[in-house]
């Protein structure tokens, strides 16, 4: 027998479970049944390639009670676990839910809120310790000859040893604490208690949940009355506690909101209600029932690109596969739910799915339904939509480049929320932006950067702000990609105010152009001088039309990423070449006017070297970039101050 320590976070969690004041302790059974149902799904899936693994008996979940020993056992004949899997899954790995749970708990504690209110968290297997003194798990992985027995009191450690089990699957035996109604611990050996809990939380589970029951019965005659002289006998039989009615096949009017929510939680292992539920039926050539959920918050799997619970594919109510990627583009990968097709064949494989016309049709339907639902939320409840956007906006925007379904990009653009120079703390939509465009303005102006605060401070915005042009603040790294994808919104192109040369206002004013030429002439000495001194750092030095209050700024080429995004990519370990940018200087700024006369007097004066470096450094600082050599910049400033004082 081996003894193992629980991982530190699991220990913390178990401690909370054991001492939990949470009154809805019944949910532990939902969690165990849900794990059993997942294990049956997985066996069904792996059974496609290993038919010999499928059990001879029907796939099911069985509850067993022992009133004298006070135990409740949940059996499943699913995929089972190897010894290593048991050690990892039931003790070593702190699951995503665990960490999230502990984090929220800490937050509540800091706010002085009682901890027990968040007991509805889906903390899975460990929640059984709310009602158990001891738990024993016996599991045998499909395809393996032996089983493993896991046991724990929940305090600090657990043991594992080899054992036998007739066939593959898992049995979780909960040694129950004494009944304490006040504390929420009911009698989980009581048939009626179990019936009620299963009905409430697990009615839609696709496998039968069976319970052996005992009935006193008396033999009856044809008239339905007890036969004369017949004695009461105890009859034992198994009853199925759940209806197994797939929620998604029932008409919407017959399913309560509560049922949808429970189903969502079962499906996603989420603990928070979904933001939106989408019920739809695809009619016509191909038929399918679709039940989708938009989660209210990011789950760990989505963030890490791991898609453990995406959209499940069923064919005529038979589970076919978990996370069917063919049904949903990556940019909607946060959507959860079920697609049940009536016309696909039962033995579809992954390879077939990728080419199947029907799958493509269903996917287009799913995409349309999701985008419509999002549009609905945006129109009906802006605040609710904003909370969704904060969670999933960056993922959704991935659909704006590289997503093959072009016609949907327009629908997606309508869903974009972003900060802007005129949106204050809030967001604007692109449609709202367009209504505020100035006469003669044809492009949608934007500036990319790392945070709305740093973008708002950028000198690149000055002239736009002064002339009243609104600029969008695009601050997700993905913005850099789609904003360059040559998209149009209501006929308007997107144009970065931090890149290339900008033309503000009506262009045909000859006079302005002449003036510019003239200024450029009079600034020739300073432009040439700066170019020479800064040749290693900048590609070009030119006069700016975008600056008002600042003396200088740096501008990328039209097709380059902004320096902030380059920096971000570098930090993520990617090799990004340092690209030279153009330095734009403001001819109206006092500093430039003075520099001009210095350069005219003596372009080789030693001080000018330092001034040029300071000017360049200042442009870097103003846009929020880092100085390549902060120490020497500091020295130059100190020198300058000394002189001035
Ligand atoms: P979750 O169900 O959210 O993943 P749990 O703590 O309930 O979290 O379970 C942890 C893991 O243990 C599961 O992801 C699964 O891999 C494994 N597991 C739990 N119960 C079973 C079971 N009955 N059969 C097979 N594997 C199981």
Which terms summarize this structure?
645 residues, alpha+beta, Heat Shock Protein 90, Ribosomal Protein S5, domain 2, nine-stranded mixed β-sheet, six-stranded mixed β-sheet, 23 strands, elongated, binds adenosine-5'-diphosphate
Structural class: alpha+beta
Low-confidence stretches: none
Distance between the termini: 80 Å
Characterize the largest beta sheet: strand count, sense, and whether it forms a barrel.
9 strands, mixed
Topology, number of strands: 23
**CATH level-four homologous superfamily name of the domain at 2-217 and 234-240:** Histidine kinase-like ATPase, C-terminal domain
CATH architecture descriptor name of the domain at 2-217 and 234-240: 2-Layer Sandwich
CATH class of the domain at 2-217 and 234-240: Alpha Beta
Mean pLDDT: 87
Can you give the helix content as a percent range?
25-40%
Radius of gyration, taken over Cα atoms and rounded to an integer in Å:
33 Å
Shape: elongated
The percent range for strand residues is 15-25%
CATH topology heading of the domain at 2-217 and 234-240? Heat Shock Protein 90
Ligand identities:
adenosine-5'-diphosphate
Number of helices: 21
Main-sheet strand order equals: 1-6-5-4-7-3-2-8-9
């Amino acid at each position: 027998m081996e003894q193992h320590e629980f991982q530190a976070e699991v220990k913390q969690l178990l401690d909370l479970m054991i001492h939990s004041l949470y009154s809805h302790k019944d949910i532990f059974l939902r969690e165990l049944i849900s794990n059993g149902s997942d294990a049956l799904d997985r066996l069904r899936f792996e059974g496609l390639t290993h038919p010999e693994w499928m059990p001879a008996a029907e796939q099911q979940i069985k509850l067993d009670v022992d009133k004298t020993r006070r135990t409740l056992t949940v059996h499943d004949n699913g995929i089972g676990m190897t010894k290593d899997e048991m050690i990892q899954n039931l003790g070593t790995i702190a699951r995503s839910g665990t960490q999230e749970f502990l984090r929220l708990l800490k937050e509540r504690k800091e706010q002085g809120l009682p901890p027990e209110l968040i007991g509805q968290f889906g903390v899975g297997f460990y929640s059984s310790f709310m009602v158990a003194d001891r738990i024993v798990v016996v599991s045998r992985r499909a395809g393996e000859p032996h089983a493993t027995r896991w046991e724990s009191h929940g305090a600090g450690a657990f043991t594992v040893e080899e054992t036998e089990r007739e066939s593959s699957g898992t049995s979780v035996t909960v040694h129950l604490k004494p009944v304490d109604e006040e504390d929420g611990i009911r009698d989980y050996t009581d048939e009626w208690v179990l019936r009620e809990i299963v009905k409430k939380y697990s009615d839609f589970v696709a496998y039968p949940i069976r319970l052996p029951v005992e009935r006193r019965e008396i033999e009856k005659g044809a008239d339905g009355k007890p036969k004369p002289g017949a004695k009461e006998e105890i009859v034992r039989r198994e009853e199925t506690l759940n209806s197994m009615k797939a929620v998604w096949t029932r008409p919407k009017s017959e399913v309560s909101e509560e049922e949808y929510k429970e189903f969502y939680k079962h499906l996603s292992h989420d603990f928070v209600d979904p933001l939106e539920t989408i019920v739809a039926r695809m009619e016509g050539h191909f038929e399918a029932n679709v039940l989708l959920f938009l989660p209210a918050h990011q789950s760990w799997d989505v963030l890490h690109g791991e898609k453990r619970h995406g959209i499940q594919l069923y064919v005529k109510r038979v589970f076919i596969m978990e996370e069917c990627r063919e049904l949903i583009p990556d940019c909607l990968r946060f959507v959860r739910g079920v697609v049940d097709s009536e016309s696909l064949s039962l033995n579809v494989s992954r390879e077939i799915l990728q080419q199947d016309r029907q799958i493509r049709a269903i996917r287009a339907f799913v995409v349309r339904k999701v985008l419509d639902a999002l549009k609905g939320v945006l129109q009906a409840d802006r605040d609710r939509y904003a909370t969704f956007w904060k969670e999933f906006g960056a993922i959704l925007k991935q659909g704006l480049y590289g997503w093959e379904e072009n016609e949907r990009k327009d629908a997606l653009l309508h869903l974009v929320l972003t900060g802007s120079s005129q949106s204050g703390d809030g967001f604007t939509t692109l449609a709202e932006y367009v209504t505020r465009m100035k006469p003669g303005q044809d492009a949608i102006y934007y500036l990319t950067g790392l945070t709305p605060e740093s973008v708002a401070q950028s000198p690149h915005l000055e002239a736009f702000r002064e002339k009243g042009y609104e600029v969008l603040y695009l601050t997700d790294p993905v913005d850099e990609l789609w904003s360059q994808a040559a998209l149009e919104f209501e006929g308007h192109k997107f144009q970065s105010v931090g890149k290339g040369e900008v033309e503000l206002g009506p262009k045909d004013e000859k006079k302005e152009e002449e003036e510019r030429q003239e200024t450029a002439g009079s600034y020739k000495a300073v432009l040439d001088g700066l170019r020479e001194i800064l040749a290693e750092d900048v590609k070009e030095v030119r006069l700016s039309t975008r600056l008002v209050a600042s003396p200088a700024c740096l501008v990328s080429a039209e097709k380059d990423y902004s320096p902030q995004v380059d920096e971000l990519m570098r930090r993520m370990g990617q090799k990004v070449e340092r690209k030279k940018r153009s330095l734009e200087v403001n001819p109206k700024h006092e500093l430039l006017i003075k520099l001009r006369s210095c350069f005219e007097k003596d372009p080789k004066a030693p001080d000018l070297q330092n001034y040029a470096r300071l000017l360049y450094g200042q442009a870097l600082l103003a846009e929020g970039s880092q100085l390549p050599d902060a120490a020497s910049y500091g020295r130059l400033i100190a020198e300058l101050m000394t002189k001035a004082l």
